[in-house]
Structures are given as structure tokens and as C-alpha cells.
Design a protein that fits this description.
Length: 127
């Protein structure tokens, strides 16, 4: 069983469907988010600025902290989270978290480059 703990819908497209069309296809699996989402805390400190077209934009040093909203392990359940959260949780011995892999992306239009679906899920390796 898969439980989506990201803040957005995930579409899982099977490898047997080679389509790169960014619309729902027969056989796509839709994983709706189940809140609360699992996230890494973020701490940012402004370290400088860059000026573009007369406007200053901050440069930040970002550190990722503890993972929030970690669900209890359940037999036969994998939780879908961001790669960053899955990597952090693997460091503390939780290997029931996976992240989206091999993305199907929009090829043109205003959403060009954004992810639409994924073709795999990425588990973290146990050392």
C-alpha cells in the first residue's frame, strides 16, 4: 500500500505506457495527498544580495533540519515523500519512505519542465 504524504497529488505511470503526454492515461494511478504532509524544517539566513534590473534579491544559506509529521510504521505500507525527507529518515533507520523517480514532464507551454507524473518510486538504501 502507498500513502502520499506530500502536499500534492502524485500520478504513477506504469512503464508499459510509454506515453509522455501530460494528461491522465488509462492505467495511471492517482495518489492523493494525506495530510499532514511529511516535511523537513528549513532554516535560512541571508548572507548577501544580488542586484538585477535595479532590484536587490537575497542570497541565502539554507539548512534543512528535522523531519516533521513522521507517521508510525505500518506493515506493508510505503509512504511517498520528497527525496530530501526520505534521505533524512533513512539516516535514522526508517526505510518505509520512498520518493518519486523518473518524472514525466511537460514538454512545452506555460508548465514546461514541471513534473506531471512519475514512472518509479525511489527507496533509500540500507547501509
Amino acid at each position: 500500500m502507498l500513502i502520499n504524504k506530500t502536499p500534492h497529488q502524485i500520478i504513477l505511470r506504469h512503464d508499459s505506457n510509454s506515453s509522455v503526454v501530460c494528461e491522465l492515461q488509462e492505467g495511471d494511478v492517482i495518489l492523493n495527498p494525506e495530510l499532514p504532509e511529511v516535511r523537513c524544517k528549513v532554516n535560512s539566513v541571508v548572507t548577501g544580495t544580488i542586484t538585477l534590473d535595479g532590484k536587490d534579491y537575497p542570497l541565502e544559506d539554507t539548512e534543512f533540519g528535522d523531519v516533521e509529521n513522521i507517521p508510525e510504521p505500518q506493515p506493508g505500507v510505503l509512504y511517498v515523500v520528497s527525496l530530501l525527507a526520505a534521505q533524512a529518515l533513512a539516516k535514522v533507520g526508517r526505510f518505509d519512505f520512498v520518493s518519486p523517480g523518473r518524472l514525466v514532464r511537460y514538454m512545452d507551454g506555460p508548465r514546461k519542465g514541471q513534473a506531471f507524473a512519475c514512472r518509479s518510486l525511489v527507496p533509500q538504501k540500507q547501509n
